[in-house]
Amino acid sequence: MGRVSGKVAFITGAARGQGRSHAVRLAEEGADIIAVDLCRDVESLGYSLATPDDLAETARLVRKAGQQVLTRQADVRDAAALEEAVLAGIAEFGGLDIVVAQAGIAGMAGEPKRQAWCDTISTNLVGTINAIQVSLPHLQEGASIIATGSTAGLMNTKQLDNPGTDPGGIAYALSKRMLSQYVHELAAQFGPSKIRANVIHPTNCNTPMLHSEPMYKAFRPDLENPTREEVEVAFPVQQVMPIPYVEPEDISEVVVFLASDESRYVTGMQMRVDAGGYLRWYDFHL
């Protein structure tokens, strides 16, 4: 306990799934939380996003862990709204030490296709950059920036045979790949200030994003309306380890490590929590 005691963490996408898990786990280790989420649906997506009640539940769990929390309903595509949340949190808690740019959407099979592309890029890439850049002026030596990538961003997923069939799905992988390069350069430029930046790449994770109709159809295109049971037999194809998915708490343990002083010399890393998913795509190389 107390691995991030006295620190303040700004977390986007905090209302449910991985974001909620990160908020609660960091609170359990002593951090106060600035929790932000959109809390409404994006029309181009084929699944529902978090609600205001979900964000309120995250706040309840943070307080139950013994820490303070400030919540805001804000769109990561809106840098001004994120800046307001950060400034309000700093005014209340006295500083900012940890940034967890977690918010993301899966645009596969999104309609209209052009809007699904735009919404996915704007949320996953631009939204991540917004969250980090409104925070940067307030970070001091020892601060930690953590972005959520995806093993999808590490794979060769170009639709060479049928380009244009699923721009939203391709935008997901592209956005994760591009944010990874952004964080790589960020780590290099701010390393001299002892501000660290890393990316975590989860494989399938047991969250509402994974358990959604578009994701189920992506894994079982042979079925018109696949059920969870029918899809779970296909999920392990993503990993070397014979599991369907990891849990949000598995990612949160790495978040806590990267947020804490235990990782004070760890920066510029592309850290995979993927049950060996990357090993399915690439030979060993340095």
TrEMBL record:
Keywords: NAD, Oxidoreductase. SUPFAM superfamilies: NAD(P)-binding Rossmann-fold domains. Gene3D superfamilies: NAD(P)-binding Rossmann-like Domain. Transmembrane segments: none annotated. One of its GO terms (molecular function) is oxidoreductase activity. It holds the Pfam family adh_short_C2. Belongs to the short-chain dehydrogenases/reductases (SDR) family. This is Mycofactocin-coupled SDR family oxidoreductase. It comes from Nocardia bovistercoris. The lineage of its organism: Bacteria, Bacillati, Actinomycetota, Actinomycetes, Mycobacteriales.
